[in-house]
Design a protein that fits this description.
The strands form two sheets. A four-stranded antiparallel beta sheet has the order 3-2-5-6, with no helix packed on it. The protein has a three-stranded antiparallel beta sheet with strand order 4-1-7, with no helix packed on it. It is elongated, with a radius of gyration of 21 Å. It has one domain. The longest helix is centred in the N-terminal third of the chain and has 25 residues. It is α+β, with helices and mostly antiparallel strands and about 120 residues long. The protein is built from one helix and seven strands, in the order H-E-E-E-E-E-E-E.
Length: about 120
Amino acid sequence: MRKYFFTLTILISTLTLYFVIRKNYLEFNSTISIKNTHWQKVHIQVRKGFNPDPFKNKLIFDQYLGIGQSRTFTIDNGDDILYRRDIDPDHADGIHFTGWQYAGGDEASVCTLDKP
């Protein structure tokens, strides 16, 4: 009986160690940096996910940024990152937005995706 208990304990410890290492060291982590360098005030939304309809992806950022403000955060996996901003940033209304763009696209000063 003691032999089986020891074997089971070793097996559980090994599996736990594997999942801890996988979660903390083998995950793909990305850094999202959003910086407003152009406009007095701009409303920015960021979503992550693989769904073709961006509105079904998870909303991870929805804020107004004043000129010179920035936000940086990380995500836990390699999901697609999409963002959009107000069409007229100097008169942000939170209703009229540009189309969704992939991070690191044309307007890298608004939202960039840096892979470590």
